[in-house]
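Lab notebook page, bench 4
Experiment: in silico fold of construct C2
Operator: M.H.
Input chain length: 394 residues
Purpose: comparison with the prior construct
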Amino acid sequence: MQVIPTPEVARGASIPQLFNYPFRIFFLSMAILALTVIPGWVLQLNGVLQLPLAMPGPFWHQHEMLFGFLSAAIAGFLLTAVCVWTQTERTHGIRLALLWGVWLTGRLMLAFGADLPGWLVQAVNLGFLPLVMADAGWRIWRARQKRQLMILAVLGLLWLMQISFVIRLDPAFIYGALVVTLALISIIGGRITPAFSSGWLRQQGLDSTAVNVIPALDIATLLSMLLLLAALVTGWQTATAVLALIAATLMLARLAGWKGWLFRKEPLLWILHLSMLWVPVALALLAGSLLAGWPTSAWTHAAGTGAIGCLILGVIARVSLGHTGRSLVLPKGMVAAFIAAHLAALIRVLTAFDVIPWHPGIGISTLLWLFAYGVFLVRYARILASPRPDGRPG
């Protein structure tokens, strides 16, 4: 059947369209932030650029990648998904614009607010995640979907890590936030990756039961990560190392059951499986940093660039197509972007171990990251700013 464009569709891309669904504005803004914070930090580190930052440079970089970049991804995904889960009206229009404005103001204050009162910068930055949780929470509560409450609880822990970090500027809370994020990945990635994978097998006429999900293993993995968080923030190093190895082993067992090698020909699936593999890698490197003196930056970048950065790229590439009513066919260049993101993570980890000299390692990793998210921005900006081809709202 031929789709006859409505007047709204015929208008094409527009700024108001970005505020018709949370994923649109937040995915676009997140990609722009990814393309500015990383080079901004590298230039700042090398003395080429001097921004009037509201916190010391290394802390700004850490905060923005976790509570700027990641928080935008969480808002875009969660506030989109929860509307589908609960069958409630989406957050859009002025309400969405105000929420996005809080996020954007926080980014600007931290980058240019050296002369602003510290309490004001902190208040704005700490205000965003609770607003996201409140928006999602009342929908989940009304729909009586108790299963989703665990996501809100983990987000609450992430916010607690942000509060502690912003107030004390202690890297321990950044490490805690990374572990919380790995737990969040364990929950959400543990749902969508096997679900999308078994669905694809079914569409191909293959055995969808090949993807094996064991609920008890899922729960054990999450519990081990929460215990790991407690040990990490309290400074109990031996327990932290042991729990990191336990969590890594449990996560590997889950991944083995999902049989990621079956999806090597489908980029929208292998990107999810490969990105999830960075979770046990990061946890193993964390244990190594405590037991064998391995560099801390190895596990933090395996978690941040690998697990978080690569999984986000894979998820937003898929969600942006599906929720704008387009077929799940990647735009040109996105497979190369997926590969570049993983290479960026790999090179950054190898650089931490001095396998690659520091300056070329950081430079190459940065360029690969910029290429990955630059391709996404070029290929998806118009998609995110355009109405659905079928004329439906959103």
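Observations: The first helix runs from residue 7 to 10. Residues 301 and 354 are 14 Å apart (CA to CA).
Next step: discuss at group meeting.
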